[in-house]
């Protein structure tokens, strides 16, 4: 069980780091963000709003790690929904060449949710 807990904690920290990187990239309107958004049919005007949502999720995970596990669980659930939407956008647009990225972020969010769910009870 200790290995599982350690793995889930590491995945939660990884989720915070990965999402924080993406928030910065979205805020800076990095070329790969603009290109990917255009490919899947997300208008450029939505990128800042998506960055705020993703940033709120990452911040909630941090607060969960700092002692507010219910908030961490809620943030993880929000990120699961966020990345499920990203996967759906990729599939709908038939953009499969980089589908691994939203799937990986989705897996990290699920692991973070599992971490907080186990810590609650």
From TrEMBL:
It is found in: Membrane. One of its GO terms (cellular component) is membrane. It is a multi-pass membrane protein. Its main location: membrane. The chain crosses the membrane at residues 73-93, 99-117. InterPro entries: DoxX. It comes from the Bacteria. Keywords: Membrane, Transmembrane, Transmembrane helix. This is CHASE2 domain-containing sensor protein. It comes from Actinomadura livida.
């Amino acid at each position: 069980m200790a290995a599982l807990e350690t793995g889930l904690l590491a995945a939660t920290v990884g989720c915070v780091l990965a999402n924080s990187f993406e928030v910065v990239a979205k805020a800076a309107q990095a070329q790969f963000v603009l290109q990917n958004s255009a490919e899947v049919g997300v208008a450029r005007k939505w990128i800042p709003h998506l960055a705020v949502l993703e940033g709120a999720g990452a911040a909630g995970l941090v607060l969960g790690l700092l002692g507010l596990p219910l908030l961490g669980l809620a943030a993880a659930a929000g990120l699961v929904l966020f990345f499920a939407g990203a996967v759906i956008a990729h599939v709908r647009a038939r953009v499969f060449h980089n589908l691994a990225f939203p799937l990986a972020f989705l897996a990290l969010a699920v692991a973070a949710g599992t971490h907080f769910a186990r810590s609650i009870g």
